[in-house]
Amino acid sequence: MKSYIAFLVQMILWSVFYIAEWMSDKDHLGYKWIMFVIFFYLAFIAAKKIVQSRKLTLFITSFSLTCFFAFKVVFENILEIF
Predict the structure, then answer these.
(1) Rg, C-alpha atoms of the chain
(2) How far is CA 53 from the centre of its chain?
């Protein structure tokens, strides 16, 4: 159950990252990478506080990041259709 909660919290953080990235459309790529690193760190720390296992935290973070980018690609492709 803790893993599921950590995954949901991270998906919320990745969604906030997507909104922040969308709002900073004209920023340089370097600033977007810095913002990504900050959100990755926040997601990792949040999961570590919930799960309290470094190995499981790394797995949950990588899994939530993979799901987020998959959802992002699907969502952007759906928007291009309409």
Answers:
(1) 14
(2) 19
Query: For 24, which DSSP code?
Result: T
What phi and psi, each to the nearest 5 degrees, are found at residue 44?
Answer: -65, -45
Cβ pair 46, 13 in contact under 8 A:
yes
With 0-12 / 13-18 / 19 or more C-beta atoms within 10 angstroms meaning exposed / middle / buried, residue 37 is exposed
CB under 8 A, 24+ apart: contacts of 71-78: 72/18
- pLDDT tens for the chain, 82 residues: list them: 999 999 999 999 999 999 999 998 888 999 999 999 999 999 999 999 999 999 999 999 999 999 999 999 999 899 888 7
Sketch the domain layout of the chain as residue ranges.
Answer: 2-81
